[in-house]
Amino acid sequence: MKIHTVTGGAGLRLHVREWGKEDAPSIFFIHGWSQNHLCWKNQYESALAEDFRLVAMDLRGHGMSDAPLEAGHYTEPQLWADDIAAVIDQLNLASPVLVGWSYAGYIICDYLRAHGPGRVAGINFVGAATTMNKAALGALIGPGFLDHVIGATSDDLPSNIEAIRNFVRGCTYSQLPSDLFEMAICWNMAVPAKIRAALLAREIDSDDMLTALTLPVLMTQGQEDTVILPAMGRHLLACCPQATASWYASTGHAPFLENPARFNDELYHFARDDHFHAVEPVLP
To answer: Are residues 102 and 172 in contact, defined by beta-carbon separation less than 8 angstroms?
Structure first.
């Protein structure tokens, strides 16, 4: 495992880790709202590291990356786009496959809009959000997020802790092992409430970016996801008809944690460019 400090948008320092073979095809993991690179533990400690260069970052404001509290560091799409570009450039990632969970769907679209798709081999959207506006609340973004967002963005610590515990519990359909659940609580609580709130102070419509995509796309979605609803996955597929859909039954918002063996196998084949034979779509 190697640790890097990457200079991202507007000079902010980003924490990045990598595993696997430096000269192998690269997979770049991008986590979601209030998470960090640790959420990909079942991927970077798997057989994927034998055949790929695996890279995972802590987003600005998360984990071990710089976390200024001013909202402006999180509301400008160019900053998010430049962060992704900086990791690709400074680590010399050759045509990485981007794997984006949840809020990372917005960030990947920010990157595509600002820098284009030319440096990327493919995209795996995992329970990914691409639209954020009032109309999306309840229709595309569900109660697994909305029921906890007020407490999770509050400066009142007891409210914050209760909301994050309930949010993490609601991210999966079945209960996580206790050690993983406890670790997830810790990495979520490491993100200041003000930063969680700032990430939500945007209005985002990525439909034009999805419609224009010609890259290989894999859409991975839990059928029991109450955080980012399956309707968001269907919306992505409607915008991006060449995408391959992989629906996970009895699975919530984190297929890579709930069914890592299947997730890793599908990602392996997707990144090896034989993904159209790897995924057996199950319609919800």
So the answer is: no
